[in-house]
Structure formats: structure tokens, C-alpha cells
């Protein structure tokens, strides 16, 4: 093939490089740059297997020698997987970062957004009765085995007119419990007046179990 007589080339210059020649030259430059700047002993994804070949643990690819692996690390697939791994690590770090509370009340603690939810907690609801006063009440036990570090579940009693899930019914109210990274759950309960005198309404957090117990100012539950 005559490279010297291509249009636009200078005499003795070898002709204008084509697409394949340009890519080959680019890969060679990237390989030389990687050899000069990358220390494979510090690469967490570089591994030599029992067959004497090399593997990229990030992309799950096989390579015959170190030069082949280095060329792979400069490619689009490896760089894309690196970007995805960095994004995943950043999201994980944000989820595990502790929340500093500075004297705010339970209703004033700001909720963090963009939290990846992992499903609903397990729970058990029981009807109870005080043998001394005859009052009826409810006990809720929720399980949070994968709750974030330094996060404590929170609750709120919500009227039927505050929620937007179903048509309001004044005969009911809602107990809402939230704990990241779990989805918030709500229990539909009778709209009786809750006894908030000392010892009649309490919560207890014994990780991973969160318990809420209270009594109503009535002598029976419908």
C-alpha cells in the first residue's frame, strides 16, 4: 500500500494516518503513560491468578500480561466501572455518616433526603390491659437489624386529617414510626384519647428492637 502518495501527506512523511493507526498510537501512548505513573502493587483490582495470568477484579476480565492489564485500565469500560464504584462508595459513606443532634426536640430534628430505603421493618402489635386500672392499650415492637449507626427510631401520632393515603376518618388516628434506612410505617389505631400521664406512655430502644406502649383513657377497645 502506498502511504506516501496519500492526499494531504508530505513526501517522506508516511502518509496521513488512518483510523486504525490513530487508535493504535493512542493505545501505545496510554500504555506508556500507565507504565510510568501506575504502581500495580497498590492497585486493589489487580490480581495474579494461579494460572500465571492477570485479572481485573473490578471488570472480571483476564489479561495475559501486565501491559495488557494496564492498557485495559485506560479503556472506557474500566473507567466507567471505576466511576460507578466511586459513586456507590460515596452513597454508602453518606448513609453511614452520624447525625449530630444539638438539643433539638424530636419534631425539630431535620430529616436527611436521598436515603436509599431497604424495605419495611418487621413488627408485632399486641393489645394489652392494665390489671389495676382496667385500661386497654397497645404495644408495638419493631425490628431494625440494619439500622444506621447512631440512629434511633422516632415516632409521631398523626390525626386522620394530616395523612394523604386514604380518605380521612375521624374515628381513627395513626402512629407513624421512622428509622433510616428503613421505610416509615404507620399503624391505624382508634382515635381514643391517649393517657399521657407518667408511666402510661413510654418507648424503649434496645437495638435492634424498638418498643412503644401506651394506654387509652377508655375501659375497652372497639
From TrEMBL:
Domain of life: Eukaryota
Primary location: nucleus
Cellular component, GO, one term: U2 snRNP
Subcellular location: Nucleus
Coiled-coil blocks: none
Annotated SMART domains: CactinC_cactus, ZnF_U1
GO molecular function, one term: nucleic acid binding
Keyword Metal-binding part of the UniProt annotation: yes
Keywords of the record: Metal-binding, mRNA processing, mRNA splicing, Nucleus, Spliceosome, Zinc, Zinc-finger
Family stated for the protein in its record: Belongs to the SF3A2 family.
Identification of the protein by name: U2 snRNP-associated protein Sap62
Organism annotation: Schizosaccharomyces osmophilus
Gene giving rise to this polypeptide: sap62
Amino acid at each position: 500500500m502506498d502511504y506516501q502518495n496519500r492526499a494531504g501527506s508530505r513526501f517522506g512523511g508516511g502518509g496521513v494516518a488512518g483510523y486504525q493507526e490513530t487508535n493504535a498510537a493512542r493505545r501505545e501512548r496510554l500504555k506508556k503513560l500507565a507504565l510510568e505513573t501506575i504502581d500495580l502493587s497498590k492497585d486493589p483490582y489487580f490480581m495474579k491468578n494461579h494460572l500465571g495470568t492477570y485479572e481485573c477484579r473490578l471488570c472480571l476480565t483476564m489479561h495475559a500480561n501486565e501491559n495488557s492489564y494496564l492498557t485495559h485500565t485506560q479503556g472506557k469500560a474500566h473507567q466507567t466501572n471505576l466511576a460507578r464504584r466511586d459513586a456507590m462508595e460515596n452513597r454508602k459513606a453518606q448513609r453511614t455518616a452520624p447525625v449530630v443532634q444539638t438539643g433539638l426536640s424530636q419534631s425539630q430534628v431535620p430529616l436527611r433526603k436521598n436515603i436509599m430505603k431497604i424495605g419495611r421493618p418487621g413488627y408485632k402489635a399486641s393489645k394489652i390491659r392494665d390489671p389495676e386500672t382496667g385500661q386497654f392499650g397497645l404495644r408495638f415492637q419493631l425490628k431494625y437489624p440494619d439500622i444506621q449507626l447512631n440512629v434511633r427510631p422516632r415516632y409521631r401520632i398523626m390525626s386522620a386529617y394530616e395523612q394523604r393515603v386514604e380518605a380521612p376518618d375521624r374515628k381513627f388516628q395513626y402512629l407513624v414510626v421512622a428509622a433510616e434506612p428503613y421505610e416509615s410505617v404507620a399503624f391505624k389505631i382508634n382515635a381514643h384519647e391517649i393517657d399521657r400521664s407518667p408511666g402510661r406512655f413510654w418507648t424503649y430502644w434496645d437495638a435492634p428492637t424498638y418498643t412503644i406502649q401506651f394506654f387509652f383513657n377508655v375501659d375497652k377497645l372497639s
